[in-house]
Amino acid sequence: MTKHSPVVRPHGRTTGRPTVRHRARVLLSVIGLGAAASLALSGCASGSGSSGGGNAKKLTMWISTSAEQEKGFDQLATEYKKDSGVSVSIVNIPNSGMQTKLRNAAQANALPDIARATSVDPIWINKTEDLSSIATDPANKIQQSLIVKGSDGKVNSIPSDSTAAGLFVNKTLFDKAGVSFPTDPSKTWTWQQFIEAATQVKKATGAKYDLVFDASPGRLRAMTYEFGGDYMQLGSNGTFSTNDKTKTALEFFKSLNDDSIMPKSVWTSGADPNALFKSGQVVAYFSGIWQVADFSANITDFDWASAASPASPIHATDLNVGGDMVAFDNGGGRGDAAKEFLAWLYQPAHYSELVGSNEFLPVESGLTIDYPFTDQASKDSFALYNKEIELAAPISSYFTTAQMKWVLKGKTLTTDPTLTEVGKYINGQQNVDATIKNIIAGYDQQAGGK
Questions:
Q1: Can you give the chain as a three-state secondary structure string?
Q2: How far apart, in whole angstroms, are the C-alpha atoms of residue 354 and residue 73?
Q3: Which residue has the higher pLDDT, 29 or 348?
Q4: What is the mean pLDDT of residues 110-127?
Q5: Where residue 60 falls among pLDDT bands split at 50, 70, 90?
Q6: Given this model, what pLDDT does residue 55 score?
Q7: What is the pLDDT of residues 295-313, one digit of tens each?
Q8: Residues with Cβ < 8 Å from 275, sequence gap 6 or more?
Q9: Which of 84, 113, 162, 447 has the smallest count of CB within 10 Å of its CB?
């Protein structure tokens, strides 16, 4: 275990930060690493970003996102300049380079003033400002289940947005088969009922599979929670454990991987579930909110929709965050100025604007959000996911907050053994007890200890 390895937020698929944006193509126009480094060093290390006496009239913020979502941050920066006289320069860094760049900047004492980090790293976590006054401000109504405080009460970061696991269906196939699906999470189906319905649709329409399921620990955690399992929990003794319902969920999941209900190849040999679903030959897809942009832009041969996620019997999801907003303590009043910007950003009026323009799921409640969707499926999906989150059991946010707590102790789960071990289980190489034992051992080795 490497002590100072960053904890990577498992946003959707493991290939990078998913972007929820309705466009004909994904725009990835970003500033190159070399240019970003130059901007950062000139803006932070040289002190050119502050105006006489450390008044910090110029701040730098690093983000890693699509060019379209960058516009949402640019727009708020422009508004903030009008309101405060302080300029915030937005530097968009490729997702693959953000972790390394922040680590290098921390070691070189050249951190930006603000960052929407794609991960939280023990190497710089203690260089952040305390954001507790923003996170706990009752006017902001930030979901406290996503906020982690250190032993000193300090809040090192606030989520910029949330992501959640959920179910998509091929609506055309359901309609053709005359089978309905629930769109109200409070009146959802069980996993068993969902599979029965999907099988009925498959037989009536000639589809190839009932379901594809992301090869992701996050999606498997969601299913486990829905069965009443707690997956991997770190106990007070410094070791991980789980409950019997987790075993039940894993046994059920393996039974689905029979090359009829689900293709084994997704979890055992890297087949792409997204492509399989978009082929039109799969009844349903268990993934998450980040798929909406892709489906809206690229599925043209059939109608798709979000369906209520199954509960067996627990209503849950794997609730994660899209990014971690941090303000760095760079001295000379810059840390205070960075906090002031974030306090302004999380005011409901400004935060709703960011969430709407960037098509985020919010971490604040009670907002009126104007999403620019033009298709009904996307509108319905976001409405459904917001309801799913409202009804989700508290365990849904366990893993994302647990990771932060591990970081505060200088530990991270850099390689989740779930995919490898469950793949062996599906292939018949080991039984369920050995699978759980091996996953726990991997967690203990990397993130265990008091």
A1: CCCCCCEECCCCCCCCCCCCCCCCCCCCCCCCHHHHHHHHHHHHHCCCCCCCCCCCCEEEEEECCCHHHHHHHHHHHHHHHHHHCCEEEEEECCHHHHHHHHHHHHHCCCCCCEEEECEECCCCHHHECCCHHHHCCCCCCECHHHCCCCCCCCCCCEEEEEECEEEEEEHHHHHHHCCCCCCCHHHCCCHHHHHHHHHHHHHHHCCCEEEEECCCHHHHHHHHHHCCCCCCEECCCCCEECCHHHHHHHHHHHHHCCCCCCCCHHHHHCCCHHHHHHCCCEEEEEEECCHHHHHHHHCCCCCEEEECCCCCCCCCCCCEEEEEEEEECCCCCHHHHHHHHHHHHCCHHHHHHHHHHHCCECCECCCCCCCCCCCHHHHHHHHHHHHHHHHCCHHHHHHHHHHHHHHHCCCCCCCCCHHHHHHHHHCCCCCHHHHHHHHHHHHHHHHCCC
A2: 7
A3: 348
A4: 92
A5: very high
A6: 57
A7: 999 999 999 999 999 999 9
A8: none
A9: 84
Token digits of residue 319? 């609730």
